[in-house]
């Protein structure tokens, strides 16, 4: 590994100052991607900025309106071990519990998974489906972007020089809302998605769908938000027939490639099946919560 | 490149070392501190051979920098048991023949210890899920899972 300086700022002010030094920087959160990328020469930097000593980035909690606010450097295991997080945001935990294995989840973070910007990342479609917002900070202030606007291409986020992803904000699910995320892999665990789907739906009292969000992983150059699948759902009864229309819309929107993990045709098929099943399971969650 | 001074609690003993920022915790343990019980497998976070406990959580030491261990508690296989006093997991691995070449074994034992510390009565499904990040190319896993379940039963009786 090429050498670099290691900085461990204790505050955002210190972190922004380090970022503004003119030297090339990389952020270190859990390190499960970036340390490997540095070792393998896929990334280089003059300085590695460890974010884990900045209190805002290491805490999480529910705001008064129920929004789950997660510091970008909170380890995944800390989130899904919390019964309140599991109860109120199960789809987040669907993703967090399958990113790598136990030893990875002890370190890996939502901020890292998002900034690594893999089209196959598990947290991204789940967070897009959940309507999550990302808080981006720099020495000029902070702003919010929806997760679906955060990706520029494989391995590239929309973060600009000097910016740090600070927080993930996941809006509360209403009493008649449910969400689900899953993926297809040829193993039982510890693998990278061949394709994946995350959904969130909301129903009215007569089980008509009044809100929907669908997102896909590993079938485009970035995690893919699919408004056309939501349009196939909204205003319709929550039935298998409706879900299959959304699955077809999702498959139509997907632009997968053929690679070692699967063919484009297989991925198109998977997207349809995964979307339908995710919708069925989100519906089950609404019914179980009643 | 300046070396950083790091203070940790390593296997219960306050330990200081110097390392370069690029050195992984795995490299520090093996090359600087001579603790070669922790093994290097893939060095990219897939195989779990280098698992250690960092503040009680199982991590892959190839994916942690030595400098990140500042102020932390690190437990390696050397801190879990030794030839004179085997940990119940180590004894069960021997009794159940849960190893052949042995390269993955320290990682399995460290990872299984973290599980049994948190969930003493973990069932087979849970053990298999927890250990999914530890790869073994010799045993086919069944003997490892049996050994962990045996140690779990013995530790709960004790």
Write up this protein.
The complex is a heterodimer of chains A (290) and B (158). Among the domains of chain A are: 1-49; 177-289, CO dehydrogenase flavoprotein, C-terminal domain (Enolase-like, domain 1), CATH 3.30.390. In chain A, 33% of the residues lie in helices and 24% in strands. Chain A has helices at residues 12-19, 34-39, 76-80, 83-88, 90-96, 102-105, 110-116, 123-129, 227-233, 240-253, 264-289, and strands at 5-7, 25-28, 47-50, 60-62, 68-71, 133-138, 141-146, 151-153, 156-157, 164-170, 177-184, 195-203, 209-217, 224-225. In chain A, the strands form 4 sheets. Chain A has a 5-stranded antiparallel beta sheet with strand order 4-5-10-6-7, covered by helices on one side. In chain A, α9 (227-233) packs antiparallel against α10 and α10 (240-253) runs antiparallel to α11. Chain A is globular, with a radius of gyration of 19 Å. The mean pLDDT of chain A is 97. The model of chain B has no long low-confidence stretch (mean pLDDT 97). Chain B is built from 5 helices and 5 strands. In chain B, α2 (88-95) crosses α5. In chain B, β3 and β4 (57-60) form a beta hairpin. Chain B is an alpha+beta fold and 158 residues long. Chain B folds into 2 domains: 4-79, Ubiquitin-like (UB roll) (Roll); 88-157, DNA polymerase, domain 1 (Orthogonal Bundle), CATH 1.10.150.120. Classes of the chains: A alpha+beta (290), B alpha+beta (158). At the A-B interface, α2 and α6 of A face β4 and α3 of B.
